[in-house]
Amino acid sequence: MTGPRLVSILRQGPYLIASIHTALDDSQMTAFQHDLVDRIGRDRARGVVIDVAALDVLDSFATRTLRTIGEVARLRGAVTVVVGIQPEVAFTMVALGMDTGSLHTALDLEEGLALLDRAVGPRRPVTALRGGAA
User: Fold this and answer.
1) Domains, the chain, ordered by start
2) Could you list the mean pLDDT of each consecutive 10-residue stretch along the chain, which spans 134 residues?
3) DSSP notation for the chain
4) Is the full-model pTM beyond 0.70?
């Protein structure tokens, strides 16, 4: 019998929504990174939302891994937004000098999706990109 899922990755249109449901150790965080990056290519995602609302701690390894996911996703053509950082976690991150780098953040899933809509823009048909009739 397997336990509850630690993370979930769902597709919503051109976006992936990844939710971390509980604290992950370093190996679980690395596995999550590889799974998410794989899904970006497989699903041809144009944006990724990573929801960390369930976490009451974001250590330096997790923060660095989220930054890495954002950079790798960018190189694969997707914009990444981290949502749901709890106030206590944000205070601790600032106090410890931890930084999300160029990673976008938003308050919650709704605002994260709105940010992706603004950043990515409307999806155009492939024929329009090749100069054909849309």
Assistant:
1) 7-129 (3.30.750.24)
2) 79 96 95 97 97 93 94 96 95 86 92 95 55 50
3) -----SEEEEEETTEEEEEE-S---HHHHHHHHHHHHHHHHHHT-SEEEEE-TT-S---HHHHHHHHHHHHHHHHTT-EEEEE---HHHHHHHHHTT---TT-EEESSHHHHHHHHHHHH-PPPPHHHHTTS--
4) yes
